[in-house]
């Protein structure tokens, strides 16, 4: 019985392609948010910044929903979990940045790409396709090269960044499940409100109030409208019809878009190894998205007369 190659699974349905496109756009929006975040961080605390932008995002979605604002009790736990995870992940990231480099933070946070399939396999017993593992590994290597240029120098804050990667992974998993169970806009508004409340509480306790520079408010407004209002909302909509593992790999393109925008808008330089990292992440995205077109190896009986 010789081995023959047969055509693979049917191409993904239009809903899946649309979801993938939405999630890729989300990565672009989040990548553009790094510039605004760096500007705002110069004149306001982390909790204040996140609190203001998530409150704006909450009010925006409340206006969009209008009389449709409601939350069934059966969904409370999921919305609360998503909001707490979103708050915790961003807090760990910010605490870690005090004693580590942005390069280390970028790489360690990017590890959620491989943590997500690991958690799904361990706790939900999901079967993970080999191409997903390969794509996740490519994305991690690419993120390492892009973030650090291949030179990783350990620092104390790395532990917070690593913990944050697990929390980010949990958030993506929760969003993927809740997106299929309830109205996406209601879910997004709910997690925004919880995140905003927790950040407001954190700002009262830990942030020192100062009068922000005018450009900081523009950065807050941009971050509230795009990375939060559009980005996290479209994440929920996109994950409704996309596998969670594929969504994670698509999100790794955030670092690529941030690097490209930094190069063109801020004049930042890209080393050859960093460019290679971008290419590896892009390759990981293609591998994850087009595995349906890979041929399937099957055995067929050889018919003899």
TrEMBL record:
Q: Where's it mainly located? A: membrane
* Location of the protein in the cell: Cell membrane
Cellular component GO terms, alphabetically?
A: plasma membrane
Q: Name one Pfam family in it.
A: EamA
Mode of membrane association: Multi-pass membrane protein
Superkingdom in the source lineage:
Bacteria
The transmembrane segments are: 21-41, 47-65, 77-96, 102-123, 130-152, 158-175, 187-206, 218-237, 249-266, 272-290
Assigned keywords, A-Z: Cell membrane, Membrane, Transmembrane, Transmembrane helix
* Domain EamA intervals: 21-147, 157-287
Enumerate the Gene3D superfamilies for this protein.
1.10.3730.20
Family affiliation: Belongs to the EamA transporter family.
Name the UniProt record assigns to this protein: EamA domain-containing protein
């Amino acid at each position: 019985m010789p081995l023959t190659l047969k055509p693979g699974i049917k191409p993904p349905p239009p809903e899946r392609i649309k979801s993938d496109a939405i999630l890729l756009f989300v990565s672009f929006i989040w990548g553009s948010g790094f510039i605004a975040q760096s500007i705002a961080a110069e004149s306001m605390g982390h909790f204040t910044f996140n609190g203001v932008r998530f409150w704006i995002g909450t009010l925006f979605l409340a206006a969009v929903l209008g009389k449709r604002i409601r939350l069934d009790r059966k969904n409370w736990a999921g919305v609360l979990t998503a909001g707490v995870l979103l708050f915790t992940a961003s807090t760990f990231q910010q605490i870690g940045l005090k004693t580590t480099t942005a390069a280390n933070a970028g790489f360690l946070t990017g590890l959620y790409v491989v943590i997500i399939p690991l958690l799904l396999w361990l706790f939900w017993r999901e079967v993970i396709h080999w191409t997903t593992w390969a794509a996740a590994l490519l994305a991690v290597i690419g993120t390492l090269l892009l973030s650090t240029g291949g030179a990783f120098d350990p620092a104390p804050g790395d532990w917070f960044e690593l913990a944050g990667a697990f929390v980010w992974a949990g958030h993506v998993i929760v969003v993927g499940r809740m997106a299929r169970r309830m109205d996406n806009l209601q879910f997004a508004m709910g997690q925004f409100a919880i995140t905003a409340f927790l950040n407001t509480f954190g700002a009262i306790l830990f942030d020192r109030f100062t009068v922000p520079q005018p450009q900081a408010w523009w950065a807050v407004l941009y971050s509230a409208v795009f990375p939060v209002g559009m980005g996290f909302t479209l994440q929920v909509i996109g994950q409704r019809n996309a596998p969670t593992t594929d969504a994670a790999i698509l999100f790794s393109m955030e670092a690529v878009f941030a690097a490209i925008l930094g190069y063109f808008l801020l004049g930042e330089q890209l080393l050859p190894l960093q460019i290679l990292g971008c290419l590896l992440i892009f390759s990981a995205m293609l591998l994850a998205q087009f595995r349906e077109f890979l041929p399937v190896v099957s055995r067929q009986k050889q018919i003899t007369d």
